[in-house]
Amino acid sequence: MKKVGVFTSGGDAPGMNAAIRAVVRCGNAQGVEVWGIHSGHRGLIENKFNKMDSRSVGNIIQRGGTILGTARCKEFKTEAGLKQAVRNLEQHGVEGLVAIGGDGTYRGMIELLKVWKGHAVGVPGTIDNDIYGTDETIGFNTAINTALEAIDKIRDTADAHERFFIVEVMGRHAGFIALNVAIGGGAEEMIIPEVKTDLKAIAEHMREGREGGKRSSIVVVAEGNDIGGAAKIAEELKKLSGFDYRVVILGHIQRGGSPTALDRRLATKLGAFAIELLSKGTSGVAAGELNGKRVATSLEDTVSKKKELDAYLQKLVPILSR
Ligand code: F6P
Hints:
Elements: E1 3-8, H1 16-29, E2 33-37, H2 40-45, E3 49-52, H3 79-92, E4 96-101, H4 103-115, E5 119-124, H5 140-161, E6 164-169, H6 176-185, E7 189-191, H7 199-211, E8 217-222, H8 230-241, E9 245-249, H9 261-279, E10 285-290, E11 293-298, H10 299-304, H11 311-320
Helix pairs in contact: 1-9, 5-6, 6-11, 7-8
The chain binds 6-O-phosphono-beta-D-fructofuranose.
C-alpha cells in the first residue's frame, strides 16, 4: 500500500489528533504517503484531500478537537454521495482509509467498501464509549474526567446550600459516561438509557438521604433516557419528593479540552495499529484494545453487537450512596 487517507468523522473526541499523528508518522515510517481528508465523510465527497507529513502533525498530540475537522453528513448515506467519494479516492490514488470516529463513521465505511475496491480500517473515536470491540474509545477518558471536575465543583456549592442537583452528561444511546461519572463523583442516583427509570424510588432515596443527614445529593442523568431532559426529571422529582432540584447540563464541554494521558496513549496505539492492519492488507475491521491487547473486530460486528455496561459498577452505585 502506497497511499492512505485519514479522516475524523461524527462528534469530535479528545485524542483524535494523537491518533492522526500516529497514522501519519507510522505510515511515513513504512514509506506510505498519508493524505488528510478534511471534514469527515463530507470531505470525501467534496474532495478535500491534502497530503500530510511528519511536520504537519507536530505539536498536536496535546490538543483537543481534530485538526482535520469533522462533520455529520447525510449525503454519504446516498448512492450518489458514495460514488462521488469513490471517484475522489480513485483520482488521488488512495488505496486505504483510516476512519476515526464512532458507529456512524463505521457504518459509512461498511457502505463505502461495497462500492470501492480499496481497504478501510476504523479507529474508535467518540466520548460515548459505545463501540463494541474495544474496552474504551478515544475521548471517553477525557470526557469523564472533565465531567468529574465539574461535579466536584457542583458538590461544593450543593453541600454549602444543602441542595439537590440533577447533572446531565452526554450519551445519546448509552450510559457509559453517566455510570463512570456517577461512580467517580459519588452520585446518589443515576439515570441511564439501559435501565427503566423508577422516579418514585429515586425520590424516596433522596428523602431517606436527607433524613439520614445528607447535606446534598446529586443525580447523574445520561441525556438519552426514558423520561426526557434533566429539566423534566427535576420537575417530576420535585412533584414526588417536594424538594427543589437545580439542573446543570454539562453539554459540549465534555467533548473539548486536552486529552488525558490515557487517551493519548490509546489513540497513539490504535492509530499505529490501523496502519499495521492496512499494510497487512486487512480491511473492513476496526482497531481496538481489549484487556490490554490490540484486537481487530469486523466493522459489521462493531455496529451490530452491543457493548455492555459494567454490571458490577452498576450494582455499586446505590450501595455506595447510602
Ligand atoms: O456521539 C458523541 C456525542 O457527543 C453524544 O454524546 C451527543 O449526544 C452527540 O454527540 C451530540 O452531537 P452534536 O454535537 O452533533 O449535537
